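tool=predict chain=A
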Amino acid sequence: MAQKIIGMLGGMSWKSSAEYYRLVNEGVRDRLGGLHSAQCLMWSFDFDDIAVLQREDRWNDAADLMVEAAQRLERGGADFLIICTNTMHKAYDRLRAAVDLPLLHIADPTAERIKADGHKRVGLLGTAFTMEQDFYKGRLADLHGLDVIVPDATDRATVHRIIYDELVQGKVEAASRDAYRAVIGRLVAAGAEAIILGCTEIMLLVGPEDSPVPLYDTTGLHAAAAVELALG
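tool=predict ok
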């Protein structure tokens, strides 16, 4: 069968982009069988370039890089795009205006699954940018009607530090897993019925056994939605 070509904006970090590549190929194989795999193009950033702009609050400059990469994928023949990171969905509106391709937002398949499972009040883990700014929480609340809670300032700093100092560098530490378990426990005590793993690296650290409530892995759900769109 004809597949749509998935354009993947990756490298933020390459660790999670490698998971995206594995998941979309496994998803196509499982759907079509045999030797089938996904038709995709990936632009992979040097993540340090993006991370510096994030730290310096130069989001417009970061969005410029994202737009340039998206246009490269469009010229290369991609049929639709996915941003293989939660945080850089801050550039989502800029990308939508800059390319004539559908852009599959990572929060949408996540929210749809959460609603289908009957949850309303959700805890959000991610980078400090994702947890504190409105570009992500606002979409979950305004478009999908979810009640989103985030950790307190101390816990947000811990979650953010572990992402940048460990997970994006391929370090998976038992002490950090314990720290995340504690943060999740406090979100559940505050009323969270489910937890969104709102950074594409967090699934490298924690799984269902680490939480008393369901975890929603944005990486897996986003990749599955991309497969569904690619196969029509």
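The two ends are 10 Å apart (CA to CA). Residues 128 and 157 are 7 Å apart (CA to CA).
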